[in-house]
Amino acid sequence: MSAPKPSFADRARASWGTGGPPDWIVVLADEVDRASQTVVAKRLGYSSSVVSQTLNACYRGDLKSFEAAVRGALMGATLECPVLGEIAKDHCLEEQKIAKAATSGLRMQIARACKTCPHSRQRADK
């Protein structure tokens, strides 16, 4: 009989070293243990390989954006959008991914506001 497979939370704790994983990694690991890696990845708008690599402390992509997605979708973190008002952090990231559309006044407002918003991934002065 083989030993039970370690939980994602256990693997994250081992991968993130002596200081332990940040709070959002613990929440992510617990949610993956509760649901599944695929379900959580879909909810966050990322691939399951990004979730796995992040839990194993080896993701080389934009970790700040991934953290914002986790904090928004799984931890209820919000921010103040200059156009939409208070929204979840993951919603902000999704709005930034949507292309500006000249046929939509709201889309144009959001696109203009993102240029100077402190939460924007596309701000010129970052």
Please provide a written account of the structure.
The protein has 7 helices and 2 strands. Helix 1 (8-15) runs antiparallel to helix 2, helix 2 (23-34) packs across helix 3 and helix 5 crosses helix 6. The radius of gyration is 17 Å and the shape is elongated. It has helices at residues 8-15, 23-34, 37-44, 48-55, 63-75, 89-97, 105-114, and strands at residues 78-81, 85-88. By secondary structure, the protein is mainly alpha-helical. The longest helix is centred in the middle third of the chain and has 13 residues, at 63-75. A two-stranded antiparallel sheet has the order 1-2. The protein is 54% helix and 6% strand.
Q: What is the fold's blueprint, element by element?
A:
Elements (H helix, E strand, L loop, with lengths): L7 H8 L7 H12 L2 H8 L3 H8 L7 H13 L2 E4 L3 E4 H9 L7 H10 L12
Antiparallel strand pairs: 1-2
Helix content: 40-55%
Largest sheet features: 2 strands, antiparallel
Order of helices and strands: HHHHHEEHH
Number of helices: 7
Distance between the termini: 54 Å
Low-pLDDT runs: none
What's the average pLDDT? Answer: 89
Strand neighbour order, sheet with most strands: 1-2
Question: Which term fits the overall shape?
Answer: elongated
Radius of gyration: 17 Å
Please tag this protein with its features.
single chain; 126 residues; mainly alpha; two-stranded antiparallel ribbon; elongated
